[in-house]
Automatic annotation (TrEMBL):
UniProt GO MF annotations: DNA binding; DNA-binding transcription factor activity; lipid binding
Stretches with biased composition (Polar residues): 134-143
Highest rank taxon of the organism: Eukaryota
DNA-binding region of this protein: 16-79
Locations listed in the record: Nucleus
Record domain Homeobox: where: 14-78
Record keywords, A-Z: Coiled coil, Differentiation, DNA-binding, Homeobox, Nucleus, Transcription, Transcription regulation
GO biological process terms on file: cell differentiation
Annotated ranges, domain START: 159-387
Name under which the protein is recorded: Homeobox-leucine zipper protein HOX32
Entry GO terms, CC: nucleus
Length: 846
């Protein structure tokens, strides 16, 4: 007893001394070196550390474990403090921006109230004057007197040799731009869904009732103003429709700014209209508060200034005062105001395409929002917030995207100065064929010398445009991306890939049946807001006969997909792809083909005012009575859009006619496939953006949702939807559609693999598919055999089954993890099995 009493205080003393350990600087340095290599070392690693470092020999392993725990905790606290400071700076800057926006809106309201009162007074005065004096002569005289009192200002002609005159134009441009950016010169209407926040793109607005089309945006980025100015002035890097920007003259000003005379060419979005160009004066200067301004305005006969370069195949458009205002933020970063205001001369465009040129929303998507997104992308890449796989630098990936878009735009426009020439048609004007055999100009742009045979040849482009009805652009492009086998020909893909080989295998014509193939999409990069994806597609070919072995081989495509967010009003959806080899070098030659779908703004014309172009006359559309009734909803297009298709092919001179015939036939077959897809999509009117409103009035959908919820309650005793039990009809359908967990139904066949028949929005996102293509997916493609056996055995015994957390696969082959899955029998009113329902809880992509 005495011995144990003596030992207990000794142990207590040892334990107490172990709680308070003071490390020497040498010991801390040794531990920090290990921490930098491995922040969470194992028990064996800690023991090894004690053996290898004599200075740590007097420290217990448990004490070292506690040191690493405390070190990780301090690191986490520092990171969290840094994150909160960054968020606080963003919120402070956003609060300042919102207060300024509120002041501007109050001024706009006051201005409108004043104008309203002034107009009322003028109407009363005019009415009284008309009553007292109806003399025509007095009206003319009063008008002449008013004109003498307020003469129309006349701009003196200023030429390039008069810097003072150009400075006057520049100062006028600056004042007009600032009145639009921060004042009330334009009535701005905020775009729905663009909510300000620390991580949002910013505040976006479009013009209302002004000349031309205009868009305005303001946001916050963590880049210095000078860097932002440098990025924004490089317009071809972020404006995908910009072909070139040439600065023809630079004139320094006394205040430290510069005046530039700029000539810019832009691409036409379709084959049905001419491209535009601009001749502008660009003024870069700084304000008294330290803000930087880049403003721009067209030089015309009315504004004065030198005459711009002559144009042949371009239509001269006018840029009204536009530009960028960049203000520094406290603590770093910048507040950016962007204004784009142009007059695109809509009268030179076919009437059916005029909505593309008179829509402020399309201008906002193409220029204003694109500029903000590009700056945010570079800002996050610079700060290390974005990680890319595959060892590619962000700048290289952006270059790939720019090259794909630029080469596709070159194909759509077919400029003569790039070496393109038009071929004669075969009597049907549906597909346009252009040829480029000018190796000097052609190879120097987007492509590579290996694409043009040394013994003579060139590149041809087969293209077509058509007007679609009742087809949401995002849904169509998503379908074309996910189901390539529905429209592509494997033999043509093989021929396109042959241009990458030194001795290409020639396929003079397309095989009507092609070869069976499957695709695997490998993500490469995506933008901050996931509006654009860059990916590599592996096409896996399968040969059934010995003669097909030479063609049935794996091929690779570099693919760019953008605009598949159906909530982005006015956004262009496109799918562009180009064959690449397995090496996929940074300077890999690209010969892109693809699709572009541009929505047309809603129009007041009824279903009877339908217009078609080219092959659109053969396209069936859904019933006109199904149009949404609310014009303010983003998905109410009147569902009209312009589809442009362009495909590149290389050829050898002795096979040119065969390749032309093959290209024309292939593009016609692709157009036919797109029409079939459009017919399948249009009547259903199903898309994730339209939500379950499109199912309103459908007794089948409402009944199925009711059966799903009731069967879940019967089998499990719980509620599937945490809502009022009395909820029914459209409200119940909407709750299930927006449920955060993936809910889906499949057939209950016993002699075949179950086929999916329904999924809510989360289910479609998890499967990476659409409601239209859902029935092509079988349950055995999602769950492995072990999972299916567990569910089937439990369902047969008790009507429902649980599957613990695991991994399943989407339709694109991506791995999806989930915490738990539940399956149950869905029975109808007569207690007869109707289908099986599944819910995947807390799923996410691996």
């Amino acid at each position: 007893m005495a011995f144990s009493m003596h030992k207990e205080p000794l142990n207590s003393k040892q334990i107490d001394s172990s709680k308070y350990v003071r490390y020497t600087p040498e010991q801390v340095e040794a531990l920090e070196r290990v921490y930098n290599e491995c922040p969470k070392p194992s028990s064996l690693r800690r023991q090894q550390l004690i053996r290898e470092c004599p200075i740590l020999s007097n420290i217990e392993p448990k004490q070292i474990k506690v040191w690493f725990q405390n070190r990780r905790c301090r690191e986490k606290q520092r990171n969290e403090a840094s994150r909160l400071q960054t968020v606080n700076r963003k919120l402070t800057a956003m609060n300042k921006l919102l207060m300024e926006e509120n002041d501007r809106l109050q001024k706009q309201v006051s201005h409108l109230v004043y104008e309203n009162g002034y107009m009322k007074k003028q109407l009363q005065t005019a009415s009284a004057t008309t009553t007292e004096n109806n003399s025509c002569e007095s009206v003319v005289v009063s008008g002449q007197q008013q004109q003498q009192q307020n003469p129309t200002p006349r701009h003196l002609q200023r030429d390039a040799n008069n810097p003072a005159g150009l400075l006057t134009i520049a100062e006028e441009t600056l004042a007009e731009f600032l009145s639009k950016a921060t004042g009330t010169a334009v009535d701005w209407v905020q775009v729905i869904g663009m909510k300000p926040g620390p991580d949002s793109i910013g505040i976006v607005a479009v013009s209302s009732n002004c000349s031309g089309v205009a868009a305005r945006a303001c946001g916050i980025v963590s880049l210095e103003p000078t860097k932002v100015v440098q990025i924004l002035k490089d317009r071809p890097s972020w404006f995908r429709d910009c072909r070139c920007v040439d600065v023809l003259s630079i004139i320094p000003t006394a205040n430290g700014g510069t005046i530039e005379l700029v000539y810019m060419q832009t691409y036409a979005p379709t084959t049905l209209a001419a491209a535009r160009d601009f001749w502008t004066l660009r003024y870069t200067t700084s304000l008294e508060d330290g803000s930087l301004v880049v403003c721009e305005k067209s030089l015309t006969s009315s504004t004065g200034g030198p005459t711009g370069p002559p144009t042949s195949c371009f239509v001269r458009a006018e840029m009204l005062p536009s530009g960028f205002l960049i203000r520094p933020c406290e603590g770093g970063g910048s507040i950016i105001h962007i204004v784009d205001h142009v007059d695109l001369d809509i009268w030179s465009v076919p009437e059916v395409l005029r909505p593309l040129y008179e829509s402020s929303k399309i201008l906002a998507q193409k220029m204003t929002i694109a500029a903000l997104r590009h700056i945010r992308q570079i800002s996050q890449e610079t700060n290390g917030e974005i990680k890319y796989g595959g060892g590619r630098q962000p700048a290289v990936l952006r270059t790939f995207s720019q090259r794909l878009c630029r080469a596709f735009n070159d194909a759509v426009n077919g400029f003569v100065d790039d070496g393109w020439s038009l071929m004669g048609s075969d009597g049907v004007e549906d597909v346009t064929i252009m040829i480029n055999s000018s190796s000097g100009k052609f190879i120097g742009s987007q492509y590579n010398a290996s694409m043009v045979p040394s013994f003579g040849g060139g590149v041809l482009c087969a293209k077509a445009s058509m007007l679609l009805q009742n087809v949401p652009p995002a849904l169509l492009v998503r379908f074309l991306r996910e189901h390539r086998s529905e429209w592509a020909d494997y033999g043509v893909d093989t021929y396109s890939a042959a241009c990458l080989k030194p001795n290409p295998y020639t396929v003079p014509c397309a095989r009507t049946s092609g070869f069976p193939s499957s695709q695997v999409i490998l993500p490469l990069a995506q933008t901050v807001e996931h509006e654009e994806f860059l990916e590599v597609v592996r096409l896996e070919g399968h040969a059934f006969t010995p003669e097909d072995v030479a063609l049935a081989q794996d091929m690779y495509l570099l693919q760019l997909c953008s605009g598949i967010d159906e909530n982005a009003v006015g956004a262009c959806a496109q799918l562009i792809f180009a064959p690449i080899d397995e090496s996929f070098a940074d300077n890999a030659p690209l010969l892109p083909s693809g699709f572009r779908v541009i929505p047309l703004d809603p129009k007041t014309d009824g279903p009877g005012a339908t217009r078609t172009l080219d092959l659109a006359s053969a396209l069936e559309v859904g019933p006109g009575s199904d149009h949404l009734s609310s014009d303010c909803e983003p998905n109410n297009y009147n569902l009209r859009s312009v589809l442009t298709i362009a495909f590149h092919f290389t050829f050898e001179n002795h096979l040119r006619d065969d390749v032309v015939s093959m290209a024309r036939q292939y593009v016609r077959s692709v157009v036919g496939s797109v029409q079939r897809v459009a017919v399948a999509i249009a009547p259903s009117r199903v898309s994730s953006g339209l939500e379950p409103k499109t199912l309103h009035g459908s007794p089948e959908a409402l009944t199925l949702v009711y059966w799903i919820c009731r069967s879940y309650r019967i089998h499990t005793g719980g509620e599937l939807l945490r809502t009022d039990s009395q909820l029914a009809g459209d409200a119940l359908l909407k709750q299930l559609w927006h449920h955060t967990d993936a809910i889906m139904c499949c057939s209950s066949k016993t002699n075949a693999s179950p086929v999916l028949t329904f999924a809510n929005q989360a289910g479609l996102d998890m499967l990476e598919t659409t409601l239209v293509a859902l029935q092509d997916i079988r349950l055995d493609k999602i769950l492995d055999e072990a999972g299916r056996k567990i569910l089937c055995s439990e369902i047969m015994q008790q009507g429902f089954g649980h599957l613990p957390g695991g991994i399943c696969v989407s339709s694109m082959g991506r791995r999806v993890s989930y915490e738990q899955a539940i399956a149950w029998k869905v029975v109808d009113e007569d207690a007869t099995n109707h289908c099986l329902a599944l819910i995947f809880i807390n799923w996410s992509f691996v």
